Each structure stands twice: as structure tokens, then as C-alpha cells.
Amino acid sequence: MNSFKTIGIIGGGQLGQMMAIAAIYMGHKVITLDPASDCPASRVSEVIVAPYDDVEALGQLAARCDVLTYEFENVDADGLDAVVSAGQLPQGTDLLRISQNRIFEKDFLANKAGVAVAPYKVVSSSLDLEGLDHSKTYVLKTATGGYDGHGQKVIRSADDMAEASQLANSAECVLEEFVTFDLEISVIVSGNGKDVTVFPVQENIHRNNILSKTIVPARISEQLAEKAKSMAVQIAKKLELSGTLCVEMFATADDIIVNEIAPRPHNSGHYSIEACDFSQFDTHILGVLGQPLPKIKLHAPAVMLNVLGQHVQQAIDYVAQNPSAHLHMYGKLEAKHNRKMGHVTVFAEDADEVEEFGEGVEY
User: pTM for this one?
Assistant: First the structure.
């Protein structure tokens, strides 16, 4: 019996492209669904050009593929339910619905997975913001549709209430107490429906709410690192996870608090392509196919730098001067400001010596 499959990926961005590359190396065929015919995945797979909520196109993809997966959260869960056959979407649509809605996500994390989250409450209108204790800082986030800082408002004082009220009246929201943390970290975990494998803890540095630099292993105590990994595994097991999941967390002086989950490979896990014996994309494909998962080994400490539209030339120059750095460009045709165009991974014992790409940085 032929063990090679046709895998359908919903979403043809850089994550879809890197999933496809991992699948192709294993001998599988890939078909991608994306609204753009020139999406990054078009360089390595056939593309069905259609919107993500086009049920007819989703049905066409499902009919031609053995297994389906998705590269990002904002996929039409109802549309998928209408077209997939039993077992064809191992990640399931429950995970999609949880990660598409911050209210469902907080409820799942706090009450079902039993992990620590920041104190929060559901906000249905500006009335729910009355009587806030302005000695505390809060973050108001829309329940759906927010990414890279969009759909969020930090409330530091009464001066911020007008904008916050406007946001609260425009959409259902979650209000979180701001957590004082030492580091932002994340843990990548992959499952095959039964077993899980976990990657090293990653330390993440953001600029303007966009990931700029990931350091592996994270510079936290061994005790906190083990706690972070065990929390990620706890979440994955509760989900009966298939494929790769990223758990974003805050590390405080003596505890770990879960912020959110992403049901797919994640920007902060890109270093794993070179720095681990299996990448987050390898384990994603193995996981959705229900195959045995390897124990992950980190070859050496590494740093991943995001290459945004304004950093492209800087990244090319950096790699020319540092031949041991690994450059990945995603094949996006237009280099827009703050658009993720690629990444660079470099092995480094001292992460501080690897400077982020940015305006006016000299190499």
C-alpha cells in the first residue's frame, strides 16, 4: 500500500510554504488553497485560488486530498465541517473555534486545561468597563479578529477609557489585567492524536507587537522551563492534539502564565528548521498523518531574526557578512513596511551579540 499522501493546506502564506516543503521532502504531494495565485506556497505546490470561506473550493480541496490541515486560525470552521469526511482533518474544527475566539480560548485554558492565565473578564459593552481600578493596567482585546496588536487597547488611566469604550461597543471583548512579566516565551508542541513531543522553550522579543527576535533556549531557570513545557503538554493532551501548536506565555520571576495558543506552526518556531533535528513543520506533517513523533533535540543555542519589509536589504547584507547565518525568504512579491518577508537563523552562544534588524543598525 502506498504510504505517500496528498495533503491539502488551507492557507498559502509562509507557514503553508514551509509545511509544504516538509511534506514534499517526506514524499507527499501538496495542494494549497489561497486567494492569491502568487502566494508563497505557489512556489512549492499546486494552488486552488479561492477565498478561505469558499465552501465549494474547500470541497474541491477535500475531494482531492487524503488529509487536510490549516496554516492559520481564521479559516471558516463551519465550511470545513460541511466538506470534510471523518478523520480527514485530524486537527479538528473544535481547536479552530477555541483559538478563533479569545473568550472560548480563556475558558478552555483556565477551566478545561487547568493552566494559569491572567485575571480576565468578558466585556459585552462599555458598561462592563465601569468601575475599573485605575491603579491597575488592563489590556482590552476583541474576542475575534485581532493579530499583531490589532484590536487591542491598553488601559493605563481614565484617559484611555474613551477609546476603550469605543472598542468595547464595537465588538465583544476580553479584558485582562496586565501581567508584570520578565520575559515573553513560547513552547511549540506537536501531537499525533495520542502522543506528543515538545520543543525547547523559546524567548521572544517583540517590537510594535510584531515578533522581532527569538532566542533558544529561553534565558529562564531550568525549573521554570520545565514548568512551561509541562503546561504546553497538558494543553496538548487535553486537546488530543494532532499537528503543531504554539503556546504563548509570560514568565514572571517565579511562575508561568499562559497568554494564548496558536493551532499551527508559529513564527517563534522557525529556528527549528536548522537548530533542531526535526523542525516544527516536520512534526506538524508527521502529527496530522498520525505517525510516530521523534523526541526533539536542540543542536546548539540559536537566534531567529524576523526580516520585515524594511529590513530586506539589511538581511541580505548581514548574511553576506555572516556566511554561517541561514537566510529564508518567503517569495512575497511586495516588500511592505512591517510585512514578514523572511527570517534569518544563526547559531549563537551569546544571544545579545546578535542584533535585531532595524532602522539605522550598522553591521
Answer: 0.94
